[in-house]
């Protein structure tokens, strides 16, 4: 079983997205956060279950999509690092994932 580790930037971005949604619909924001954590928790058992991002076909990064979010991560033998959360409509640039 892999340990899931959230980076501070990923957690902050998810919080910002949820806060924005909560301005109009607090219940939807809560559901989004709950669904994101449920999907990410699944990575403990199935760390390679996320897809390889289309923009990064030969990278070590994977993603889980929970509309309107794309959650980017990488995994090693015992850990999954959640690196970045992005709204789906925003373009991904490889430098955003850094070298974490």
UniProtKB/TrEMBL annotation:
The keyword Iron-sulfur does not apply. Pfam families: ParE_toxin. The keyword ATP-binding does not apply. Keywords: Toxin-antitoxin system. PANTHER family: TOXIN PARE1-RELATED, TYPE II TOXIN-ANTITOXIN SYSTEM RELE_PARE FAMILY TOXIN. Belongs to the RelE toxin family. This is Plasmid stabilization system protein ParE. It comes from Marinobacterium halophilum.
């Amino acid at each position: 079983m892999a340990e899931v580790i959230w980076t501070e930037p990923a957690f902050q971005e998810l919080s910002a997205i949820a806060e924005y949604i909560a301005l109009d619909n607090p219940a939807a924001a809560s559901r989004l956060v709950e669904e994101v954590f449920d999907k990410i928790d699944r990575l403990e058992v199935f760390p390679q279950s996320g897809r390889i991002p289309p923009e990064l076909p030969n990278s070590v990064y994977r993603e889980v999509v929970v509309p309107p979010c794309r959650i980017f991560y990488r995994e090693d033998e015992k850990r999954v690092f959640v690196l970045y959360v992005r709204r789906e409509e925003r373009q991904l640039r490889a430098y955003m994932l850094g070298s974490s």
